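Researcher: Quick sanity check before group meeting.
Model: Go ahead. Protein one:
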Amino acid sequence: MNDLIPELAEKFGAMADERAIDKCAIIATDKLIEAVSFLKETHAFDVLIDIAGVDYLGMENHKGKRFAAIYCLKSTKNMVRLRLKAEVDEGEKIPTLSQIYPIADWQEREVWDQFGIVFEGHHNLKRLLNHAEFEGHPLRKDYPAKKRQWLSENDQMLDQLEKRLEHLGYKVV
């Protein structure tokens, strides 16, 4: 397991994140699905712990793209953790991992809601933490900290509740 980052570099062009204090590989977005599938199938990374968004705007000495999605993976078999970082600029997209890890569905929605990072192929990319009428993405560095937004109607997420009930055999009337 100690040779994961060199293996990812050889197979997928990843590189070690020199600023990270733990195992973290930077990977191109077009190689993300292939690399994550490889890690899950070959190295038993069976858990996607979290997806974190990062906005590097104004960060000293940062020369890369503005945003990053950081995937925290864990192998419960080998008791090893690894982080993958996919960087994107405004208007670029990262492929969804919800087909590989179903929990990514909600985690990607949270990152999109807070940072505006778009996950291509996501089936239901809509607000999760902010109300449906919210404009902007509040964890971006250029979002006005004191901006207030009016909520006129609450989103009850009924579409998801009804779908889940029907899946469980209930008829929604």
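Researcher: Fine. The other one?
Model: Protein two, sequence then structure:
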Amino acid sequence: MSERRVHLSRSAPEAYKTLEAFSRTVAGVADAAGIDARLRELVQLHTSQLNGCAFCVRVHVDRGLAAGLDADVIAQIATWRESGVFSERERAALELAEAFTFIHEDGVPDEVYDHVGGILSEEEYVALSWILVAINAFNRVAIAGRYPVPPRAAAAPA
């Protein structure tokens, strides 16, 4: 598609910088809650896949590999419910990622909240929730602008 779209991060850099600052704050919340880089990248990658954000998928595949995800784990994300490669904690985080991504359908259903809350601490739940709010926002910026998928070596942060 040759359609030119407004590039939101360039058109309103102060707003994008605020979103980046928010993301750094969320990273601090995640650090304080003990959410490691692997789990962060796992949920951000899955959320980006669900939203159809190719730009953010590329970014989070690269970051996920750096954080210890391997090709098999990345390939299994689409079938996480049936796959045996994810820990109970990772499965809870992936379930929460789906609830946040599709929050417009049912909110966070009680059964998801109760199940995830039985596995994750309140601090982990809060941190993962903020990570999911942030990645969903970044996905929407990139999708709305049809940001091109960066080459692997030049993947920019999202």
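Researcher: One line on it for the slide.
Model: The chain has nine helices and no strands.
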